[in-house]
Amino acid sequence: MLEYATVGASPWCRMKNLLLAFFAAMASAPLLAAPKHADALIRHATLVDVERARLVRDQAVVTAGDRIVAVGNDADVARDWTATRIIEAKDRYLIPGLWDMHVHFGGAPELVAENQALLPLYVAHGITTVRDASGDIPLEVLNWRRAIILGSLFGPNLFSSGPKIEGLKPIWKGTIEAGSEADVDKAIDQLKSLHVDFVKITDSTLKPELFLYAVREARAAGLRASGHIPMALTVRQAADAGISSIEHLDYAFNAGVKDEAAIAADFGAGRITRETARDRLDAGFDERTAMRAYRYLAGKGVFVTPTLNGSRILAYLDEDTHQHDDYLAYIGPGLRKTYEWRIQRAAQASAAQVEQRHAHYHRVAAVIPMLQRAGVTIMAGTDAGYLNSFIYPGIGLHDELALYVEKGLTPAQALSSAIRAGPRWFGLLDKYGSIAPGKAADLVLLNGNPLDDIRATRAIEIVVLRGTVHDRPALDRMLAETRAKVAAWNQ
Ligand SMILES: [Zn+2]
C-alpha cells in the first residue's frame, strides 16, 4: 500500500501545495493585493480646497462611473489603484466643477437648436452645472434636463425652474400667468407635476401681494423660490415670505437704502413713477442700513446672485459695442438678434444718462464685499442666454468671477461663489463642492493656481463631467463644433 505522503510528494501535488500557500499568503498580506481598477486616475495634482481656501499638494484622485472613489497622497493612492485612463497632473490645480447659477434658454420656439448649441460651451469652459432661471422654451429645457441625465444629449448638469410665475399679460413669454391666489395655487401644482428644481417668480405684471403669496406657497410646497423683487415691496418683505435667492445685485442694493420702505409704499400707492422710485433708491444708499439689512438676509439664509457682468456690459455699451467680440462666433443669428432690444434702448441714452449709468454700476457693485462681510452667500451667475446682450455662455462666468475680485472679494471667495454656493443653495453639498470620495466626478484641471489669480480658472487643461474625461483637444472640438454650427446658420 502506498503511503499518502508518497502520493502527496508527486511533482503535481508539490506545485499545488505551493500554489495554495501562495494564495493564502496573498489573502493575508494586503500589501501584495492587486490594485483595484477604476476609470480614471489623476496623479500628482494640487487640490484646491475651496472651503478652507488652501492647497493640498501631490494628491491623486480616482473616479469610477460618475463618482470620486478615492483621494489621497499620490504614492498611497497609486499603490492601491490603477485605471483605464491615467492623467499626469504635476504642477496643475484641480478644482470641483464650476456652477453658473443663472442662465437662460429661449428667444423663440424656432431657436431651440441655437440654444442647444450653447450647452457644450459651458462644459468647454469648466462649467459642469447650470441653473436655468427660466425662459420662453421651458418645457423644452425640462426635456433637455432628462435627456442629459439619460445621456442622449450632451451638456452640463441642468437644474431648471421650468416656466416662471408672472402676472397677467406679462412682458415675458413662456410664463404661468397668475391674477389671483387660486391661480398661484394652480401654478405651484403645475410646477410640482413638472418636477421643477425651484420656482422663478418675476414681477413685470404680478401684483406685489401675489408675489409674496407665491413665495410663501412655493416654500410650503417644499420648493425654493427665487426672483426679482417688485418695486412696491421691500427686500425684507420678500425675505420674510421665504425667498431663497435674490437675482441681480440691484435688488440687494435697494435693501441698503434708508428710505426703501417709504419709496416702496409711495410707488405701490401710485404716488411716484418707477423712474422717480429708481432715482430715490439710487440716491439713498447708506452703508450702515445696508450692513444691518445684509446681516438680516444672511440670518434668513437668503443668497444673492449678482449677475454683475451683465450690468457692466449694459452700463458700458457706449465704450464697448461688442460688435467684434470673438465670442459672437458661438452665438447663432437668431440669438444675436435678441441682443438688439437692450442695445437700442441703451443707444437712446443722453450723455448725462450714460454718465449716470456708469456711476450706478459702480455704486451697486460696491455692495459685493458688504454682502460677503455680512455673511450672505454670493452665488455666481451670469444671466447668459438670449436677450442679455454679450454675456457669453461659458466664458461669461469667468468674467463674472474676475469682477467679484475686482470689487473686493478674495479669489477664494469668488471661487466659492461658483463652486460651493450652488450646491449649498440646492442642499447638495454632500454630493458637490469638494473633492472627496463619494462626491460627483465633476472636476476641472487648471494650469495655474486660482487662489493666487482668479484668471487661472480660464486656463483649463481637462474637464471631468459625470466621470467622463474631456481633455484639451476634446474641449477644443466642442468649441469648434458650436462655431461650425453657427457659421452654417450664418450662411
Ligand atoms: Zn435672468
Main β sheet profile: 8 strands, mixed
User: What class, by secondary structure content?
Assistant: alpha/beta
Discrete helix count:
22
> Proportion of β residues?
15-25%
**pLDDT < 50 stretches:** 1-9
Give helix % range.
40-55%
Overall pLDDT confidence: 94
Task: Compute the CA-based radius of gyration.
Answer: 27 Å
Shape verdict: globular
Spatial separation of the terminal alpha carbons:
96 Å
Name every ligand kind in the structure.
Answer: zinc ion
Count of beta strands: 17
Short description:
With 491 residues, this protein is of the alpha/beta class. It has 22 helices and 17 strands. Mean pLDDT is 94; it is low at 1-9.
Please provide a written account of the structure.
The chain is of the alpha/beta class and 491 residues long. Strands 1, 2, 3, 4, 5, 15, 16 and 17 form an eight-stranded mixed beta sheet that branches. The chain has helices spanning 4-8, 11-28, 74-80, 112-116, 119-124, 138-150, 181-193, 208-220, 235-241, 249-254, 260-268, 274-283, 287-300, 308-315, 333-338, 340-347, 351-365, 367-374, 395-406, 411-419, 421-426, 472-490; strands at 36-49, 54-64, 67-73, 81-88, 93-96, 98-103, 127-132, 157-160, 165-166, 176-177, 199-201, 225-227, 245-247, 303-305, 443-446, 460-465, 468-471. Zinc ion binds at residues 102, 104, 133, 383.
